[in-house]
User: What shape does this take?
Amino acid sequence: MEKLDVDIFNNILETTNKLYANKAKELNDKEEYFRNTLRKALYPNWKIFRKETRKWITLGGIFLLKITMYETKNDEGKITRFTYYHDEKLKQISNCKYDIDNLKLAVKFYLENSKIPSNLKQLLPSKQLLNYYLDKLKIKEKFRKWKY
Assistant: This one.
């Protein structure tokens, strides 16, 4: 039997981290392919204005996702700038850097009035930010309707 080597002081969830890391790599590869190859064929008048990275905070850790801002000129020479999201996940994190699973877990802790484990505190939104998301996503209204 093989010896099992486990670091009990490591707070990273290895399997979850690998899954989210693969998803982040896939999203970054898609963005790079669109920016360098597909954009030139489909939209030759789109010029790159700015390249940036956004944090994506998940239960598997914190990852950086590439996002590119483009600009076009119309016939009158007016410049329009926009961000093209090549995946639905990027559209989601354009408004909130926390993954949906993180928000669900934070809401669960909030509704149960239970303490957040110390290893998850950096991956979940603060109470003030959670209240903002509860209002923005209308979770409080849904909860009131469900309760009565």
